[in-house]
Fold these 3 entries.
Entry 1:
Amino acid sequence: MSTKIAITGKSGSGKTTITKAFLNVLKTNFPDKSILLFDNDLTGELGHSFGMDIRNTIYGIRSGKHEYKTGIPEGMSKHEFVEWAIEDILVSIDDNVDIIVSWFVGAKDCRCPITAQINYACQKLIERYDFVIFDCEFDLKYLNQLVETNIDLALIVANPTLESVKLAKRIAEFSVKHADGGQLGVVVNKVKNENLSSVYSTMKDSELDILGAIPFDETLADGTSDWNSQIVQEAVKEFYFRLNLPQENS
């Protein structure tokens, strides 16, 4: 059974950097485990952070605009075709890590068969991996429109401002019903030492579950990095023990 981590929050909050930090921590702690990166953010930054311009998406399957790597096999049922197409758009990052990009998703109340077929195919794909990290759009609602799956950890990324804290509370309210009883909490990103105490005070007043804080990384400030940060990775290692995730390789 796979362990699922959903990284949510406002665009620009640092979700992609934190997603990559979680990937690196999991690869270090569980070197033999398989990991799927599921880019559910409309910006598509996760693929770009690996130097990839991933054009083949789940939306492309839905819209019929996907360009397949090979000819479409004959004699498949609709379900078989969607499962085959999902496999076709997977991109390998290394021996144990793959990435898939959703882009636009259909409305949850859409009754067209392709909606249910994609949901089923995505569920099957997800369960094949030991870990799945979802880089989400704003909250869990958008992910749930695409695939219904239990989430072990939903992490809301917030910046150390009152406005961001208020937004994190809204995201938590929108996401809680889609978290399936999994752990739901906030990580405060881009924290400078001088405002750490005030951030925690603000978070406490908002009744949000604070799972960790990540220091501000100057190397990320100019936007020219590859979304890799040793500072962010070390911070994730420090608060990892608080998370509803496997703690030891087995």
Note: The radius of gyration is 18 Å.
Entry 2:
Amino acid sequence: MKKKIVKKLTAAILMGCLMTTAVCVPVMADSIVIEEPTEESLKDMTTDIVKKQVKSGDSKKTKLSKLFKYTEKTYGYARTTSFSNKKGWEKTYAKKMFKDKKGSCYHFAAAYGFLAKQATGYPVRICVGQTKGFSGRWQPHAWTEVKIGTKWYICDTNMDKFAAKSSGKYYLKSKTSSAMKAVYKAGSYVTVKF
């Protein structure tokens, strides 16, 4: 009788310890597995969005257009006060945009960049530089560029959505055109890779 009571009391104490501190006693360590919550990967996030927004039979240019419109329509603006161009920033910013549904030009550029890459396989990069498309004065900015054939094209979802009289003006525009050279100054590039 005493053995049963001791076993039950020991089990109750161990269960209480596990529930309150999530620490296992050494005797039971091999039999208990505590799983960490998993975070959805950037690849999974973009795959889900692409599947919902484009059709498999769409041309690559149609996919780019649909995702450009989706990004403009779906995401809102939230200012970033201290951007840091550290390695891997683009992945962090894209995931944050997909989760929070708002962000700065850096978030817009990263989100669209990964969507475009996932949907088309084209070479895609994010440019961090300057623009005078919002105010007429040069200011820090980021945008997406997609390479089709031998030419790079600007796809700036943030500028297209928020600059005055800009609808369609900053989608798939040749980087080397005089109109785009007057608005953008490139600084550094990040190649979009999963």
Note: Strands lie at 76-77, 102-103, 124-131, 139-148, 151-155, 173-174, 184-191.
Entry 3:
Amino acid sequence: MAEMFTGKYNHSIDTKGRIIVPAKFKKNIGEEPVVSLGIDGCLDIYPRDRWEAFVESLDSLPGNLSKVRNIRRALMANSTECEIDKQGRILIPQWLREKVGLDKEAVFVGVGKKIELWNKEKFEAIDLSDTESLEELADGLSEYNISF
């Protein structure tokens, strides 16, 4: 079974747009991860093999639906292959940083098969520690046969 990404880590982005990948993530992300626009105002970072599997799943959707074509365009046009340098940093292109408001402080969040990279203020605005909210979220997933 492939490694899962969990946890959150705060890191600074330097003036060139480089950010150190947390050591816990670096060992499983590979040397050439793919960074893509996420759907919640963050960036998604995929190991190469998981990105390829994700693209295959998109390709399996019916191409005659405009929603499918548009999501393919949006995700593929707003993704790029990146390299991790010898210092363990990844360069996030300026155009992607601008789309999600990444400036100086960012948060890496492990969400299973991928990593999300958030503007720190945006991420902190989502109160994930509120017990009542977590209970409401869990209740809303009951139809998917997920046990907590």
Note: The beta strands are 8-12, 18-20, 34-37, 43-46, 79-81, 89-91, 105-110, 115-119.
